[in-house]
Amino acid sequence: MSRNIIELEELTKKYGSVSVVDRLNLSIAKGEVFGLLGPNGAGKSTTILMMLGLIEPTSGRIMVCDIDSTRNPIEVKKIVGYLPEDVRFYDDLTGLENLIYTARLNHISVKEADQKARELLERVGMTEEADKKAGKYSRGMRQRLGLADVLIKDPHLIILDEPTLGIDPRGVMEFLELILKLKKEQELTVVLSSHNLHQVQKICNRVGLFVNGKLLAEGDISSLSQKLFSDETFIIEAGISLDSFDEADSLKVAKNMDMLLEKLKNIRGVISINVRDNVLRIGCSGDLSPAIAKIIIDSGAGLSFLHKKEYGLDEIYNRYFEGDANHE
Amino acid sequence: MNKMRIRSQQEKKLTHPFLVIVNKEISDHINSWRFIILIVIIGLTCFGSLYTALTNIGKVVETPGHNNSFLFLNLFTLSDGTMPSFVVFISFLGPLLGISLGFDAINSEQNRGTLSRIMAQPIHRDYLLNAKFLAALVVISIMFFALGFLVMGFGILTIGIPPTPEEFLRVVFFILVSILYVAFWLNLSILLSIQFRQTATSALACIAAWLFFTVFFHLIVNLISKANMPAETASAQQIIDYQKFVLNLLRIEPGRLYNEATTTLLMPTIHSLGPLSMEQIHGAIPGLLPLGQSIMLVWPQLTGLIAATTICFGLSYFSFMKKEIRSR
């Protein structure tokens, strides 16, 4: 038994000539909370469905708990719980009945299923709604019931596809805490996909960044930012007001602006400058805010704010989108 | 040792997941409004036709030359022209019953988002499809047997003559053939429910197929047969060949096969379903066919129906196994 619960080797899925997942290599260790991060259509869901054997890969190998999920999906599905994106239940059954149905599909006897379902409903905080029809549940309730549904088979690994999509911020907080709590109680491995950086940041040990079916980078958040921004570790945003150039001639204003940018670029350590709506985004290797402030003020422009940022997932994400725009 | 025995006992008590699905599907059908409406329509029409048969059955007995044996079967076939007979009603409403129980089998699960959740459970993929088919078939069988036996019971009460064992067997065979016929439409609609994502589209496609066979198919056969009509001077052999050709064209329609099969089963006076020459008619010994011979006579029709049903099932099986299960 290897330490890794999921091993993907050169996993590829093509639709026609388009590769949705492209030669993906990934391993996820036991007990981890792993986040698959990426924009819509990056191939996250396809990868998840291939792990469960619901989609056949074009090539490559998937091992989940040392079982090949393409060849032997039933065995994999016995120990893996999957919460689909926007999970739905049978509307005319109650929450409890839905859980019992799932349990019985997993070879659990009716009596045991009933007991287990009630226990799980209590754990996800749905005891009061247990006997309501699932059709009347709100989205947040459905997600919590979904979590109970996933856990009823006592899985080793749970895979959650966009679990926080469409829940209000408070609900998201509670839901993520619930996942962490359950994970600790049952010693689970959790894989979750999301395009929301902050949520992933909060609970994941490790993150894989998906772009166009490729794993761009993987690791914890700090190592990710180091990989992507090896030299630019600081971002300084400066809001300038051009009114204080005090000149009616727009041509001259532009010229002053150019001069200012030129001067800023000449500071040692400045790597890149972006201008958008009178806000300068300056990437630099160290904290250069005093020097930058001085140059802006000397140039005659007004400095409305100066803001120092460290890299987070937002920047990682934006960085990807910039990269994407450059490609086109 | 003891532990193992307890375990095996527990396992024996467990309902197999396949039967769990069948259970749920049957209860879904029975609790649905759709089924209640259908059962009311079919029940009403059947009792309407039973009423006309009962009011006219006296005249049959009085008709000179009528062979009084198999009087009981007239309950199913007799009509006075105002109201179609039981057999005609079943051949008309049977397809609608099959279609309505199957047209949303798979795509409604997909639209409701429950398909991927069920497929993530450790069950074989064909369980769902087979269970849906079996559940609908069980429901139809129970309904048809109940109706058939009810009609027989009412018949015994009103005309006071119990059916002979052979009559009883003929009715049972008639019901079995009816179930087979509905199973064909059920499979066709399940196939279309896999092919089309929208339930409305698949329902419409099924109804279109049904309309085509009941209305347009005859028109088309008419056109073809008129175009190929042999000249008046043609030999007898040519005319017989032509008649056989037209008959075989008509037999492409499953409803035709069903009608031939059921009328032969319920009317022992029918000796042949193809064209007969005058000599053959004169040479025939007037009398009734025994049940075995009636079944032999419609064996090709039955085989055709079974083949059509199996083809539809095979196609749906194939396309469902190949289908990619996405969350929505």
Furnish the topology, listing elements before pairings:
The complex is a heterodimer of chains A (328) and B (328).
Chain A: E1 4-15, E2 18-29, E3 33-37, H1 44-51, E4 59-64, E5 67-68, H2 73-79, E6 80-83, H3 95-105, H4 110-123, H5 139-151, E7 157-161, H6 169-186, E8 189-194, H7 197-203, E9 206-211, E10 214-219, H8 221-228, E11 234-241, H9 250-265, E12 270-276, E13 279-284, H10 289-298, E14 302-310, H11 313-327
Parallel strand pairs in A: 3-8, 3-9, 6-7, 7-8
Antiparallel strand pairs in A: 1-2, 1-4, 4-5, 9-10, 11-13, 11-14, 12-13
Helix pairs in contact in A: 3-4, 4-5, 5-6
Chain B: H1 2-13, H2 17-31, H3 33-62, H4 74-77, H5 86-102, H6 107-111, H7 115-119, H8 125-159, H9 165-195, H10 199-227, H11 236-250, H12 254-266, H13 278-283, H14 291-322
Explain what the structure shows.
The complex is a heterodimer of chains A (328) and B (328). Chain A has 328 residues and is α/β, with parallel strands linked by helices. Chain A has helices at 44-51, 73-79, 95-105, 110-123, 139-151, 169-186, 197-203, 221-228, 250-265, 289-298, 313-327; strands spanning 4-15, 18-29, 33-37, 59-64, 67-68, 80-83, 157-161, 189-194, 206-211, 214-219, 234-241, 270-276, 279-284, 302-310. In chain A, the strands form three sheets. A six-stranded mixed beta sheet of chain A has the order 6-7-8-3-9-10, sandwiched between helices. In chain A, strand 1 (4-15) and strand 2 form a beta hairpin. In chain A, helix 3 (95-105) packs across helix 4, helix 4 packs across helix 5 (139-151) and helix 5 (139-151) packs parallel to helix 6 (169-186). Chain B is an all-alpha fold. Chain B contains 14 helices and no strands. The longest helix of chain B is centred in the middle third of the chain and has 35 residues, at 125-159. The termini of chain B are far apart. The interface between A and B is medium-sized, with 34 and 27 residues.
